[in-house]
Amino acid sequence: MQKLFKNAFLLIGITVYTFTNVFSQSKPVTIEIDLGKSIAPMKPVWAWFGYDEPNYTYMKDGKKLLTEIAALSPVPVYVRAHCLLCTGDGTAALKWGSTNAYTEDSNGNPVYNWAIVDSIFDTYVKRGMKPLAQIGFMPEAMSTHPQPYQHDWKPGDPYGKIMTGWAYPPKDYKKWAALVYAWVKHSVERYGQKEVESWYWEVWNEPNGYWKGTMDEFFKLYDYSADAVKRALPTAKIGGLNIAGTSSPGGTKWLTEFLKHCAEGTNYVTGKIGAPLDAVLFHAKGSPKLVDGMVRMNMSPQLRDIQTGFKSVLAYPQFKNLPLIVGESDPEGCAACGMATNPSNAYRNGTMYSSYTAATFARKYQLEDLYGVNFLGAVSWSFEFENQPWFYGFRDLATNGVDKPVLNVFRMFGKMSGDRVEVKSERMYPLQMVLDSSIRGARTDIGALASKDKKTAAVMVWNYHDDDKQGAAEPVEITFSNVSASSVKVTEYRIDQEHSNSYEVWKKMGSPQNPDAKQIATLEKAGQLETIGKSYQLKPKSGKAKISIALPRQAVSLLKLDW
Asked: Of 4, 313, 437, 461, whose CB is crowded by the most CB atoms within 10 A?
């Protein structure tokens, strides 16, 4: 019987969640790491971030967080933001931003003003970051339906309320193309050709929701945009289409029709077959719910979106090697919907968001391995919300300049390099089960992701379940094989209720909405990645090293070995 269960839960060479001793609390969960078996490069697909409100970029807490994000990554981080061409005075609001890049004079002639756009991109480039430059949305003077233009959406309002004049097609596609051309040319003049060649440009966002035109009108917008980018800089990289609900019938149709247009459709500008396509982008979102007052996560839709995106691109042989970017990859859809108006989003402040992030990124890597695609990045659509209540429950990485636990998962990822190596865990749910039904079984998902470089190795271990409950620590025994050193330094980093957790410290303070300077300093320190105990030396025997830890439910540990 045990053998039958084991075979049923075997997928792509990773043994997971066998039922041996599954009901024994005393026997440790075993995880085996083979440092001699490389799977693929440990690509930093996590080093991509984005947000709706571009004007937060150069504000106080925005700059602070971008500095921290840049510092945690060993490679340049890509940043994506909405509203880079929207009309307005640059005043930030929830799910809104503006740059006033394009207006017209009294005779209808274009007036370009790059001051705010430059302040956004300058903030990135000065920190060694790269724009994933979104070409959108429609300037007021160019919109076919300009009024009303700026929305007044607030949390709790219907989502469709944000779709105002900025979401419509242009009156004149040639004027739109001239704007795009001028923007790219200006960027090359300001930042240099080599720098801009390293960026990605992409057209619009979620045209199956954020576009008040037809599908054909969107393809026309894409063709004019891509042509303008390539005329301004032939070596620039352009892509699309950042569809929402990739695995839904509507989302899949949009993606497949877009790929078909780029492969064999008639180009609206040139009249020739096909359109430039240097990267394919699509979105992936989970779906938490409130069940009897408890948050229950659901990563299945998010992972199925990614699976569908990968498979859709593989249907076109000419695109199979293109970089694939999950333009937004999150537990659900609305970053600006706090837990006061959306109680199912109450997972965001504590360690639930951390363990979910660790567990889902591991499965993204598994999907890359399964389909053999060129998976380049997954944008976490989570940043910060300036001048908002403390720990309001936005989907953000920091609140009022204080880092939340989830940011420390990315600090952990930043310590992993080299190649991903083979992992076997008896309690890690198989990929297909997670795709089908997320992580809902009687036991939690205790899984791992491991890497090895020349003189270092690391394993990230999580104890995750969809039900937002804390739980006692479980013993976990991690065995490393093919360790090439006679002595290694071991350091354990931890995110749990007591470590790397500013939210718990804030609650113990009495949840102050106006903390004083001393309290803020304490919170800032609590928001950093912490270790458990001190580093110690371990001497492998016959190339094997064994480490035992106790991992609470919804906690994440990173064990780093250096020699």
From this structure: 461
